From TrEMBL:
It comes from Erythrobacter neustonensis. This is UrcA family protein. Keywords: Signal. Residues 1-21 form the signal peptide.
């Protein structure tokens, strides 16, 4: 019975709601005209319950392993009639372990992730910089393709 409860708790706590939202806007000058790109980052925390409840008089080995993933949605206006969308992700921007049940540690984990806000912002800005080349290539392609 305890194993069933442990398995159900692990499944229920596997993915929590996004806890941190980030935004960034950039305008890049291009021969075909300025490219306006909006980036919206979302952090999602996943948890995994490990260990077992200890028998009477014995210590518990329960632990909650967690990791935070950054997903960045990009929407850009490349030309007058061309819109571009892309999703960039970075797994394990932050991760850790807390002793006990994942369910009871949810708020503490959210607080840890919120405390690393600057780390997530740096990761988002690195993804924005990586995306710059792809965005310029899309703009070049859109400018070279005749519309009409």
């Amino acid at each position: 019975m305890n194993r069933l409860a442990l398995a159900l708790a692990g499944i229920a706590a596997a993915v929590s709601a996004p806890t941190l939202a980030l935004e960034h806007t950039v305008v890049i000058e291009h021969d075909a005209g300025p490219i306006a790109a909006d980036y919206r980052g979302t952090v999602t925390i996943t948890t995994a319950q490990t260990g077992t409840v200890g028998a009477a008089g014995r210590p518990s080995t329960l632990a909650c392993r967690w990791s935070a993933k950054l997903s960045v949605e990009r929407a850009a206006d490349l030309a007058k009639a061309v819109k571009s969308h892309r999703t960039l992700t970075r797994d394990n921007v932050a991760k850790g372990t807390r002793s006990g049940w994942c369910e009871t540690n949810a708020k503490a984990i959210d607080k840890l992730v919120d405390g690393r806000r600057e780390e997530f912002r740096r990761s988002m800005m690195a993804l924005v910089e990586i995306d710059r080349a792809a965005l310029l290539a899309e703009a070049d392609s859109a400018a070279a393709t005749p519309r009409g």
